[in-house]
């Protein structure tokens, strides 16, 4: 993977940050993206670059806006060169019963969790096809494979991104480009910390019981998935060794979907 150019969306924390670190450690030049404190993000980029010896740049593009996604992909190619690897990882969540689910949250979740991937892939494919090599990995979720209450937009978007993964995989397979999804179980990141609080409100349960009943209860391993394990799975799917793996949705879920 040395000298591959990668864009990892939603990489200022959690799974995305672990993935950016992992790809850089394997020799990739990386564009990070996401929200957060600019000084902290700059420090993280400098740290990754110092450890890996690769080029690390950052875009603050808001992926709910298609024009911003396109601009980010243009900046990535300008800064790094043609993009070989796209990891569509940015994600947001909102928890509410469907009859109370705000319309604007539905639109936001579909835009960030699903449509942004359409736009990054659309922007990246021409150069990948020209070079005859490409890796696209979409961070879906176990909720791309099974349903759950109070998360209609998230479940719909994550099922959608697995569909997009298959459609892209088939369309570009003969050009040396693969497209896969990873489906994490519960990974303790800011997105989950917020959900534990929201679920506690919706269900009326204390937060420690929500963690056990709603999140850990579904995973036979009985432990949260470390972000590094998801990053390792993504990095494998980006490697040459995974050249024949395409159109898949790989659970990294402690057995959640084995039930
Ligand atoms: P996180 O909150 O740590 O990271 C989310 C990232 O997305 C952050 O960098 C954030 O700044 C970025 N982001 C949010 N909205 C954005 C926008 N409009 N434009 C650009 N960036 C934006 O969460 P995480 O758990 O690391 O989530 C990463 C992905 O993994 C998401 O797609 C999430 O749905 C998925 N996932 C997480 C879990 C889990 O248990 N944490 C489980 C399954 C799937």
UniProtKB/TrEMBL annotation:
Signal peptide positions on this chain: none
Class of enzymatic activity (EC top level): oxidoreductase
GO molecular function: 3-hydroxybutyrate dehydrogenase activity
Enzyme Commission numbers on file: 1.1.1.30
GO biological process terms on file: monocarboxylic acid metabolic process
The entry's keywords: Oxidoreductase
Alphabetical list of Gene3D superfamilies matching this protein: NAD(P)-binding Rossmann-like Domain
InterPro entries linked to this entry: 3-OHbutyrate_DH, NAD(P)-bd_dom_sf, Sc_DH/Rdtase_CS, SDR, SDR_fam
Pfam families documented for this protein: adh_short_C2
Family listed: Belongs to the short-chain dehydrogenases/reductases (SDR) family.
PANTHER family noted in UniProt: 3-OXOACYL-(ACYL-CARRIER-PROTEIN) REDUCTASE, 3-OXOACYL-[ACYL-CARRIER-PROTEIN] REDUCTASE FABG
Protein name: 3-hydroxybutyrate dehydrogenase
Species this chain originates from: Azospirillum doebereinerae
